[in-house]
Structure formats: C-alpha cells, structure tokens
Amino acid sequence: RFQSAGFVLCALFLASCAEDSPKRVSDDVREPLDIELPAPVLRRLNQAQYGRAVHDLLGEDVVLPTSLEPDERIDGLRAIGSAVTTISPRGVEQYEQAAFDLAAQALDTKGERKRFLPCLQDNDFPDPCIEGFFRDFGPRVWRRPLTDLEVDRMTGISIRAGGLLGDAYEGLEFGLAAMLQSPNFLFRVELGEPDPDAPGEYRFTDYEMATRLSFLLWDTIPDAELLQAASRGDLTDAEGLEEQVDRMLSDDRVEDGLRAYFTDMFSLYSLDELNKDPTVFTHMSPEVGPAAREETLLGILHLVQDQDGDFRDLLTTRTTFLDRRLSSIYGVPAPLWDGFGMTEWPKDHGRRGFLGQVSFLAGHSHAVASSPTLRGKFIREVLLCHMIPAPP
C-alpha cells in the first residue's frame, strides 16, 4: 500500500533523523548504533508553514503578513532550527500585529462572517453562537480539541471586547486574534502520552500524529478528515495510520510537502542568494539560482508522482526539466520556448541525476571556482549521513 510512495518513504527515514536530531552514528559501521530517543519539543512554524496554515484556515484571499520572526537554520536545516529557537520580543509584537490584521480580514465582509458564523444575526448574535464558533473552528487552529476552560476564555474575550467596542464582530476579532497568536497555533506541541502497550514508555498522541503527518506530507495543518481520524484514535493504530497516509499521498497538497522537504534537506533555499563572478561563470544572472532549484524540484516531483521511483533514481536518472536559461548552461536545445519542459539527457552527455545539476554544482562551490571539497562534504553529510569532523 505504500508502493506509490517508495521514493518518499526512503526520504522520510532521513527526515526522522533531521527532525528529531538524535546522536550521529559512528562512521565505523561495525560499531553498534547509539541513537538517543527524541526529547519532547515545541517546533515553531516556519514562515511558509505559517502562511499555508493561515490560508487553509481563513481562505486564499487573505493577505499574509510580510514581516515575521525569521526562520532559523541549524546544521543547515529549518527542521532542526524550528525545534531549538523561540520567539524574540520583537517577534511577539509582529505575531500579535499579524493576528489582529488577519482576524480583521477574515471578518471584514458579511459573506465571510456567514462562513465562520452561520448563526449570524446582523450585529447581534447570541453568546452560544460565539461559543459554538470556538468549539467548531478552534480545533482546526490549534490542531486539537479545546478544553472547556479554553473555550470559555476565548468566548469571554470576544463578548467583553464586543461589549466595550459596541460591535460584536470587532469583539470576535479579539478572540480570533488571541487564537492566532497563541503558542498553540505558532508551535507544534509534541509532548506525548503514556504508551498503553509499553509501560514506562511514551508515544505521540493521535492529534500530535495528525500534526506531524500533515506538516511532513503537506507542510501545513491537518484537514478536517485527518482531525476526525485523530478523534477516533485511528492514528495510533498502524492500519488507521496507513489509510490516512495513502489518502494524503494522493492529494495535490503532497506537492507542497515534497517541495518543502527537499528544499530544506538539499539546502535549495540558498540558491535564492546564489552569487558567482560573471566574468568566470558567464551564464550567471539573478535568475539562475531559482531556475536551478525548480529543475531539481520538478525532477523530484516527477520521480515520486509519475515514475514511482525511489531515492536511487534521483542520483541516476537521465530525465530532467529545463528552461531556456538552464539549457544554455548545459549546452542542449531548450525543450520549450517559455517555461520548463522535460528533457532526456543523451547517453553520451555525461550528466546523471541530482549530482549533475546546477543546483548541486553551483550551490556547493565558490564564487570564482569549483569546489570538490564542498561537494564531497555535502555528499558525505547529507546523502550518507556521516559527520565530517573539524579539521585538526
């Protein structure tokens, strides 16, 4: 049942190493593996995840904030940085301002209000209507059911603010903004629960599994069906978990997850700031880096979604996707006049897979020269999972 995701699952094994950051294993494979179990963590949503979550909750028309706490990368990975960094005082102010702005946009028009509040009655709706909003909508925002105390708090904030401002909708904006700036939204909470099948050990709860699964495969929050599966206890059951994984892999949103995962794993984000001396690299321009990243990501999507490939195919495939700019760098005809098109390398061309692409070769070299050292370090650490020690 997982065959359609063979390539993905091979990478997901590496993801567990990156996300949970256990001890590095010894380079000597004859030694027994010494791996620490991951400690409970709070992972802050990165900016891309924050934007996707907001659009899933409030609609695609909502204008996202342009100034938020920057993403932190540790060992080159946002997956690790998000589990280590917190929010600065300035970042708290930015999230607060963003929350109120987003809440105002969501409740700006009568049509949008009806979507969130079907019990709408002009500017005066009963308290149970507000309470129902937080009971129904709150679990999507916080990715778990709200306790009665939490519902009472959000309802009380909205009612009191509405009374002071003389406008029920402005009051509700305060409650919605409170949810959007809460740590329960901005962080992925993974504290676990006692495992009934293994006394003395812990496992992720169903709702924590829903969040981990959705951010891994879709890079966004769980949908309603996944939360319902969590409410039934399906995600701590192997068969129920497999069923949800199959469903999610067939969803279009898996493209977002794949792009986010491999952009982080292969440090493709660095291509946005690719800097080369144009007198040495005559094809260099500001468009080369983003184009190179897109070539790699389109190839990965093709292998996963169309070819049912595995991780080895990424390193050996002769199929790639080029635009006119990249075609000129590689010295081959452009497949399309505009945009990216599929290209098959000739057998005698000499290039194969990811390690022959501009994204890897230019991303791991110097501004004025090539660098076998940087490329070898990437292969050793990222593809082979070995730590290169510091020089003597």
Summarize the structure.
With 392 residues, the protein is mainly alpha-helical. Helix content is 52%, strand content 5%. The longest helix has 19 residues, at 288-306.
Describe this structure in words.
The protein is built from 18 helices and 6 strands. It is mostly helical and 392 residues long. The chain has a two-stranded antiparallel sheet. A two-stranded antiparallel ribbon has the order 3-4. A two-stranded antiparallel sheet has the order 5-6. The longest helix has 19 residues. It is elongated and about 75 Å long. The N terminus is likely disordered.
Question: Can you tag this structure with a few keywords?
Answer:
single chain, 392 residues, mainly alpha, two-stranded antiparallel ribbon, two-stranded antiparallel sheet, 18 helices, 6 strands, 52% helix, elongated, disordered N terminus
Blueprint of the fold:
Layout: H1 6-20, E1 41-44, H2 47-58, H3 78-84, H4 89-106, H5 110-116, H6 127-142, H7 148-165, H8 168-180, H9 183-186, E2 187-190, E3 193-194, E4 202-203, H10 206-217, H11 224-231, H12 238-249, H13 254-265, H14 288-306, H15 311-316, E5 319-322, H16 324-330, E6 341-344, H17 358-363, H18 372-383
Antiparallel strand pairs: 1-2, 3-4, 5-6
Q: Care to count the β-strands? A: 6
Structural class assignment: mainly alpha
Going across the biggest sheet, name each strand in turn: 1-2
Distance between the termini: 49 Å
Average pLDDT, all residues:
87
User: What is the C-alpha radius of gyration, as a whole number of Å?
Assistant: 24 Å
| Overall helicity | 40-55%
How many strands, which pairing sense, and closed or not: the largest β-sheet? 2 strands, antiparallel
Strand content: 5-15%
Count up the helices. 18
- The low-confidence parts are 1-7, 9-35
